[in-house]
Amino acid sequence: MKLILSEEQQFLKDTAKSFARDKTPVTHFRELRDSENAQCWDETVWKEMVELGWSGILVPEKFGGSDFGMAGISVIMQELGKTLTPSPILSTSVLGVSSINMLGSDKQKDDYLPKIVAGELTIALAIDEGNHHDPFAIATTAIFDGDKWILNGKKVFVVDGASADILLLVTRTSGKSGESNGISVFAANKDNTGLNITKISTADSRNYANIEISDLKLEQSALLGEQDLAGETLEKILDLGRIAISAEMLGNTEEAFEVTVNYLKERKQFGVQIGSFQALQHRAAKMFCEIELTKSAVIAAMHAADENSNELERLASLAKFQAGETLHLVSNEAIQMHGGIGVTDEYDIGFYLKRARVAEQIFGTSEFHQARYADISGF
Amino acid sequence: MSDLTAFREEVRDWLEENCPPSMRTPMVPEEEVWGGRNAEYVNPESKLWLDRMGEKGWTAPKIPKEYGGGGLDRDQTKVLHQELFRINARQPLNSFGIWMLAPCIIEFGSEEQKLEHIPKIIKGEIRWCQGYSEPGSGSDLASLSTKAEDMGDHYLVNGQKVWTSYADKADWIFALVRTGPKEPKHNGISFLLIDMATEGVSTKPITLISGKSPFCETFFDNVKAPKENLVGVENSGWTIAKKLLQHERNFISNFGLAGGGTGSGADVVNIAKKYLGEVNGQIANLTHRENITLHKMKEHAFGLTLQRSGDEGAKASAASSMFKYYGTEHNKDRYELMIAAMGNKGLGWTNEGFSDDEQAITKAWLRTKANSIEGGTSEVQLNVISRRVLDLPN
Question: Which residues of chain A are within 8 Å of residue B301 when distances are taken between CB atoms?
Answer without folding.
Answer: 293-294, 296-297, 318, 322
